[in-house]
Amino acid sequence: MGRWWSPPEPRSVQLLLLGVALVAASFYAGTLFQSSASPAVILPPSGSRSPDSSNPQDDAEFTNRVAVTYRTTPISVPDHGLDVCPLEYNEYVPCHDAAYVSNLKNLDRSRHEDLEHICPPREKRLFCLVPPPNEYKIPLRWPTSRDNVWRSNVNHSRLSEVKGGQNWVHDSGKLWWFPGGGTHFKHGASEYIERLGNMTTNSTGDLSSAGVVQVLDVGCGVASFSAYLLPLDIHTMSFAPKDGHENQIQFALERGIGAMISVLATKQLPYPGNSFEMVHCSRCRVDWHENDGILLKEVDRLLRPNGYFVYSAPPAYRKDKDFPIIWEKLINITTAMCWKLIAKHVQTAIWIKPEDESCRQKNADMKLLNICNPDDSSSPSWKSPLMNCVRLNTDQSKLQKLPPRPDRLLFYSRSLERIGVTPEKFENNNQFWRDQVRKYWSLLGVEKTSIRNVMDMNANYGGFAMALSTDPVWIMNVVPHTAINTLPVIYDRGLIGSYHDWLVFFFWKSRHPFPCLDESKTHPCCRCLPFSTYPRSYDLLHAFHLFSHYQGRVEGCSLEDILLEIDRIIRPQGFIIIRDVNTTLSRISDLAPKFLWDVTSRTLENEENMPEQVLICRKKFWAII
Fold first, then answer.
1. Residues near 577 by Cβ (< 8 Å), separated by ≥ 6?
2. Model pTM?
3. Which of 326, 261, 327, 205 is nearest to 531 (CA)?
């Protein structure tokens, strides 16, 4: 008992029936680790159960099969439900698949283009449910998860072996333990953060009093720097590539810390300009001095005026090897951009970006610096090539001093004015989301501490995230590239997020990392684009009129494709809240059982005070036998 082999079938792979484990309702009551639930009952298919089985949960039966299945055209979801990918695909990240990318030619690997977001064509993309690893457990709850996660959930030991001496992560039996260290702060992030505060304020304050609200952490490791900034109410977008530092972003997300897979290589990062008061690099393995400093110019784009670039790396303090030459190049590049080196202490150097543009204009006149075309900053930075130039904030009327958090959350910024949102509309939207979030919690019926990682898949002005700001969660606010560019609004509110496109369309002649399959070579093609994150990253996904945003654009990306990506990135027992037109919700309700989701329908009011259907979906906790 416990395994079931199906009769031979005419397919290229042998199919296994999937046994599904329903999660027991109780946790280890009263213990520190309140969320240790794991699959409690393995349910083999009918005919293989013990005749004396009396468990009431044994009435449930699932027919999904284990098989490597790829996307077909037209799309087809079998009556028995979506196939389940074999266990070896439990960490499948479609657009960061080293096996696929290794066969691509014409990538500039010297600049790490192979680590960027590169998606395979449809016929090479898995179309099956990604399973959890063996002995997967529901993640520990925040704040316990900051310091401890289940080993079985991210069962990789390399970081503890090579970075244990720097206190990144240590083996602690059934747990991974995170002491809060890093390459340049092995004695703890708190001490390092205090030192940065002293360096930016001449020892008169901390990073918060230095005006830092949002930080971009480049090459973040396991994101301990971000975790220890939270007591200062400083919010960090942490990113690192999917490279030799095995599963660092997966560790960060398992801890409940905001992070995503990304890399500084050949394209702009998916964040708006003038969004961060600090960009941080602690041994981040970025060659800032190469290619005429083009990567530092990307940092300049992202920094707000008077923003800090923190650089903790050997060239800032070592005098051997090539480090002095690298340091000299950094000084030349930053001087040309008119950055001021305000502090250099221990192993860290800090520059500040100027507010006054006269120095940069003077250097441009002297041919020491290239100035970007003003039109270059108008479009969202989504898959846009890096630019070897700096953007001048010549129109001072567009610059605005923003208040600190939490006042920034409700501040009416000029970024709202630029997209035509009036103060009245902004306030009404805020009140709407306060009401909706209160009702959401009631509908979910769970303790707030059971939800930590949240994604708003179509974030608009960030009202959903604002309404959650006092709850123990962090929110990845995603703005589709094809929607109104509201991500600057979100960052001006002190929130974090990313551009993305759940669906992208283009013409045959467009430069794209994979070919268009449209034989006519004249009609637009379409692809669903998975997000740059690991499976089981989020506890709650919010899809507010996401599907209708893409409805009817072009053929090639279906509702089923987006649902499959949702299933990949949501955790077992995680929730998906979907609001959309009724025809779309009806299709999702029909499909949900095939994805092994429970689904209920409720009615709330929309912003026009009209009834609107809401789907509350919950992913079952299942496991391959």
1. 440, 540, 541, 542, 543, 614, 615, 616, 617
2. 0.90
3. 261
